[in-house]
Design goal:
Length: 159
């Protein structure tokens, strides 16, 4: 793996671990929870995060970003074990594609998000980390409204 990508990916892996710590604590019943109003269920938020990650995986293959992937597996918002397995699959895919990036691609090729907005691969990977942080913010609100504590490491990393 390119050294620049590898350094950034080590940080992303820490944030992925925070996501995985959460998923160990969530039950299928937890995934049905919605704080009301127009808010989706917690399971929908988890499914959406997987779909976003799939968009990032594909963007490192094509150097173009599209967030139009939608899983057709209904269990991706209702079964915690299926979501955990899917996240692991997506993590493996992301690592595999990052391994294929050449130094030339990392140093010189831009990933198009929307014309004319383009980012170097290292920054694009950092934006994926930010997507995880946004997810954590949303989930924190859900956990508080469920009277649930956040995973222990969250306080140290997220405040």
């Amino acid at each position: 793996m390119n050294a620049k990508i590898a350094r950034q990916y080590e940080i992303v892996k820490i944030y992925r671990q925070l996501r995985d710590d959460l998923m160990v604590e969530l039950s299928d019943d937890d995934l049905t929870y919605s704080p009301g109003g127009e808010n989706d269920s917690l399971g929908v938020l988890c499914r959406q995060l997987g779909e976003v990650q799939k968009g990032y995986v594909e963007s490192f293959k094509t150097f173009s970003t599209a967030f139009d992937y939608e899983t057709d597996d209904e269990e991706m918002e209702s079964r915690a074990d299926r979501i955990r397995a899917w996240y692991q699959q997506l993590d493996d895919e992301l690592e595999e594609v990052l391994e294929t990036l050449s130094d030339e691609e990392v140093d010189n090729r831009m990933i198009v998000r929307t014309e004319p907005f383009k980012l170097p691969a290292v920054i694009h990977l950092d934006v994926f980390r930010e997507a995880l942080i946004i997810f954590f913010g949303k989930v924190s609100v859900y956990l508080k409204s469920m009277n649930r504590t956040r995973p222990t490491k969250w306080d140290k990393w997220l405040g």
